[in-house]
What does this fold into?
Amino acid sequence: MLYEATINDEKIYFKYLLKNEIFENDNTIFKQKDINSVYTYIQDYYKSYNSIPTGEILVDKLEVKKAIIQTLYDLDELDKYDSKWIENKLDLHIKTTLANLELSNLIDKSRNGGMDYVLDKLGINTIFEKEIDPVYEELPTISQEIYDNLPEMLKEITQLFEGQKKDVILTSALSTISMFFSNIKSYYYEGSISYNNIYTFIIAKSSTGKSIMNKCKLLTYDFNLRFRESYKYLKEQYNQMTKEDKLLNNQPIEKVFVGGGDATKQGLYKYMMNNDGVFLLFDTEADALTDKNDDVNGDYSIIIRKSIQNESITKLLATQDSTYIDNPRLNICISGTQDQVKKLIGKNGAENGTFNRFIYYDWDVEPTIEDPHKNKDANDVFMKYSKKLDHWYNEYFKICDKYTFELSENQNKLFFESMKKIHDDVLRKSVDGSSAIIKRHYLFAQKIMITFAALRAVEKIDNSEKDFFNNVNYIPEILNISDSDFLNVLKLIDVYISHSLKMINYYTPVQNEVKEKISWKIQVWNSLKKSFTRKQAIEIGNKINISDTTIDRWIKTLKSDDIIEKNGYNYNKLKEL
It folds into this structure.
């Protein structure tokens, strides 16, 4: 949610900085003209004389009313407020202001064709400057900068852990808590409506401790318990009715929102129908899903593919009631080995799109023994947020379509331009299937932004009683995301893209054993001279089983991206791939 400081807010900030003689901040943190003028003058004066100018000097030097200067210099008002609280709000205001400036600067650069500069500033471009060898060992992890700027809830549950365990908790939390915000809608390609549901797959070897993600399942405890207890009570009431009363009343509908991989396909259909399309599949053992991958009991492929983009699911049956789910919002949080990914996705998973429906995180660590008594109080933190999430859902988010998420015009522009640049860079170098991964992560990023915006909104309400700046007790129907959170999500999704690119190379069989870890595009490119012909490119491609048509499409892409130029029958390399 966008944080907008009022004039009174800025007065409090100014007084706090004046009292503590803090003048190194950029003067753009003050939008109010008079406050900006006074702060700017004090900055210059303090730098020259190492002291604060008197009010009389300001009145003499500035075109600011004396009454305004007197008000700004009256520091007694600060006694009403807790200094720590002011520090926190001031920090948020500064981050928001700087993020707004950063976004504006990035937009200006992107308009002038400087997307390389933009992605570099976001810390994204460096990943794709590498030859795209998505099986390379050093995959990026989620940076501390990203963690420092998370919404309060995500920051609190992740700071309990260290190293890549933090990444596993954050990734699992995103797919788990998106269920609570799955009724928030947004708009995607060509006006299609999208809702907030996410699939994550933590990939790790056996005995590496991936069960740590079970902490995130605790976040659903109170929510699921409330519906279980309600059904139990209503069922008991129904059972006590007379036969005549039962004829006049329907049996209560059982609602179960969280289940493991042992759920049958029919069971999943049932509860998604009962829950108006919402369900969370949560399991630390992907085998629970893959061991029964047949048409009767398992094979979630259709549900997985349709649900991520909220396409209606229809199953017409002659022997029992048919299934119709108008707005499926399935969430999936699972973990397993690389081989289990293959089993879950199926032999046609890359072709039919099941593979690219997931956010992958490759936790590449060796099995180890850890102190079992560490973080013994961690459950308490997760259970605290279990109660909060249940309350937030019941109070604000249980009605579908009540809230709509929207990006600002500038955010939309930068979002599209950055994802397009990443897509085009990867497509030139990587294997088939990488395009679909980038496009799908474009959607995932938007869904994560919804979660961030919703968390900021409820956090603001929860803090409103002690928030002397903005006493808020409602969520606006149009949800926005701050520029700082928007940029943070772009940096986060970049990490997930690189992990998924590794998986597509592992999942897609390499057609030639030579240089198995390098994509065919890099192989062909490195084999071509600075000046080459179409025939030469096709001959090299054919040696590794790449078709003429595929080579032609690739050459066309290189030409349109100004990587090569045509000169008669020859193509000349203009720069490195």
Remarks:
- The longest strand covers residues 329-336.
- Residues 7-79 form one domain.
